[in-house]
Amino acid sequence: MLLAKVRIAIGESTFEWAEAGIVAVAGNASVQETVLEPETVVSYLGLRPGRSYSPGELERRCLESETRLTESALFYEASVVVLPSRKNRDTRTVLVSVRPGYLWRFGAGNAFVTVGRVALGGERLSLKGYLGWNRNGVEILHERFGGLPLALGAGVFANAPGTWSAQAAATGIAPTAPGMEARLTQGAYIGPDLLIAVDEAVLAYFPGTDKNGAYSVQPHVRFGRPFLGSDRSRGGGGAGTVSHGGAEGRLWVFLPYREGVKGEASAWYRASLGARGTLAAKVAAGAAKGEYGFDLASTDDRSVRSGYPAAALIATDFVFASAEARYRAAALPLGWTTCGIEPFLFFDAALLNDQTADRRMAAEGMGAGLRVLFDSPVFAYFTFTFGVNPNGSSRFSFCGTAGI
Q1: Tens digits of per-residue pLDDT, 130-187?
Q2: In Å, how far are 54, 60, 270, 271 from 229, measured between CA atoms?
Q3: With CB atoms counted within 10 Å of each terminal CB, which end of the chain scores lower, N or C?
Q4: Is the CA virtual torsion 327, 72, 174, 245 positive or negative?
């Protein structure tokens, strides 16, 4: 059947998207009054007017689009449904209804805070600032630059005065001395789930530091999408389960101060187990030639979380696998936000070439952890883990990631 048009309801305003473009048909026509542009909503949809879909495929694409809109954190509510045509049985209209959400962002990391704003001007444009002992700076990202599916961003940071090895630099190097870094990003979206881009980043240390700076060019690709469970349907009285999967690859080419190259690829999958359970898994591999390796001790979502010396987990090449079983134990209402309590069990394993000792070793870790998840409008996530390796050495760690 033919998808004739998409009707987009944003608050009190309604727009129609057909092959000829998007036009306002009811309510407030100005972008400022709708809070978000209809093009912003369209960028999350996996369908297009003028194309033909089978009934099952159209329903699946609508449900996937609804999931993307909901998980974008730009909307309080989102609904994507198929409307039958009154005149032609072979054509359909899709109705997209959204209610714009809270667009400020607040967060925290190790000794720094983050404040930002998304959807500036109603577009996919965000601005974030960092302030604290370990990290200071600002970054801006536009994901529909010029009204096209183009990504353009920039950031400037100062990793000082309290440098921390876990705060990876934009160049792909952990900052070991006070310095400045800057990054430029440009890329293109192929549909709503695939980004192909390249970053350029420079690291310069402050005067008086006996270290050379670095410059890197980083081509990368990122893919991620929702997968609907067999129970996910409009009927049955429930939303059903939604799983997620994705992959990413990045190449770092260091020029001209210290020549070198490294590359990393990873894939992950997060499966819903009922209403509260989740099983998450990740695999990754990387190889480097030159001075810069990989940190498997303190990198978010790719660390062996047990009691190895941090220096022993700096690798010139590695393969890595991790799995977590999670349970959403509670969602505590705090009036202005919700606090999720999520205990989990984990197992990490890696085979790596220890850069410092120039030897190949296996590293393992297993244990338990707890995530404290503050949702809209805070979007701040804190993870506590305790893991032990086969030698009996343990480690407690704290970081700000929500996990795979």
Answers
A1: 999 888 999 999 999 999 999 999 999 998 777 766 666 788 877 778 889 999 999 9
A2: 19, 11, 12, 9
A3: N
A4: positive
Residue 54 is part of a domain; what is its CATH number?
3.10.20.310
| Residue found under tokens 């660390």 | 303
Condensed to tens digits (0 to 9), the pLDDT of residues 237-271 reads 344 578 999 999 999 999 876 678 999 999 999 99
For residues 387 and 281, state if they share a domain. yes
Task: Of 47, 44, 41, 39, give the one whose Cα is nearest residue 82.
Answer: 47
- Spans in the chain with pLDDT lower than 50: 29-32, 235-239
What order do you get walking across the sheet with 2-10 strand by strand? 21-26, 13-18, 2-10, 91-100, 75-84
pLDDT of amino acid 232: 52
Q: Are residues 53 and 189 in the same domain?
A: no
Q: Are residues 77 and 115 in the same domain?
A: no
Q: Which structural domain, as residue segments, surrounds residue 80? A: 2-100
Quote the tokens at residue 71. Answer: 């998980």
Structure tokens at 124: 């996919």
Q: What's the pLDDT at 10?
A: 93
Same domain for 277 and 216? no
CA-closest candidate to residue 66, choices 280, 239, 247: 239
Contacts of 272 (CB under 8 A, 6+ apart): 229, 241, 242, 243, 278
| pLDDT score, position 238 | 41
Query: Looking at residue 393, what is its pLDDT?
Result: 97
CA distances from 97 to 192, 235, 362 (A): 18, 19, 51
Using alpha carbons only, give the angle 345, 347, 353 rounded to the nearest 5 degrees. Answer: 155
